[in-house]
């Protein structure tokens, strides 16, 4: 019997050793499974911290930075491009360019677009669309009335420049097309229409700053000059980029 016990001792020790190590391997496997989850939680926590840091950074933006964002300077290219294209077409046909008229119209167009931007902020504030928009002019100034008055003054001054150009050009088509373009801007954002909320913003912007504005500025180079040129070149009136 002692010899049998001695012979079986290694087997018993081996069995106990396996039994002793098995829980550790189970624990190790469970810990390995938990590591990716912990890593994901840490990564999500870091992302949330970064996002909250960015939000805090936005909250610390200076008033001048917010005003710069609210100015939306790139949008004023829609005043420059139609005027330049229309004037270039008229110059190509007639050989005439009215520098003073060009710059007065450019200033008038910028004022009209300023009205669009300011009144858009006013009406978006009324509907609550800009409630949390920090670069909204209404939110920056803190007064809907002041913003609305500034918009109306900009539109009035813009009309002064447009009607001066109309008096110089003497072409009713110019002022009619300009008014149609401005009306597109009005129904885009102003009550009771607010067509931009109905998915019609892009077509209205295209009509206002595309064919209407470009053709209007083409006629702003004086109907008398264009008409007299057209009488001499009737076949090329509709070919402003012809090589003749």
In what range is the share of β-strand residues?
under 5%
The main pleated sheet reads as: none
Any low-confidence stretches, pLDDT <50, length ≥5? 1-30, 38-42, 44-58, 240-244
Number of helix segments?
Answer: 9
Number of strands: 0
Task: Give the end-to-end Cα distance, rounded to a whole number of Å.
Answer: 124 Å
Helix content: over 70%
Roughly how many Å is the radius of gyration?
36 Å
Helix-strand topology string: HHHHHHHHH
Protein name: 1,4-dihydroxy-2-naphthoate octaprenyltransferase
Keywords: Membrane, Signal, Transferase, Transmembrane, Transmembrane helix
InterPro entries: UbiA_prenyltransferase, UBIAD1
Pfam family, one: UbiA
Summarize the structure in words.
The structure is a single chain. The chain has two domains: 1-60; 63-236, no CATH class. The protein is elongated. It has nine helices and no strands. Helix 4 packs parallel to helix 7 (172-189). The chain has helices spanning 2-59, 63-71, 77-94, 99-127, 137-141, 144-169, 172-189, 201-219, 223-232. With 244 residues, it is mostly helical. One of its GO terms (molecular function) is prenyltransferase activity. Keywords: Membrane, Signal, Transferase, Transmembrane, Transmembrane helix. InterPro entries: UbiA_prenyltransferase, UBIAD1. Residues 1-19 form the signal peptide.
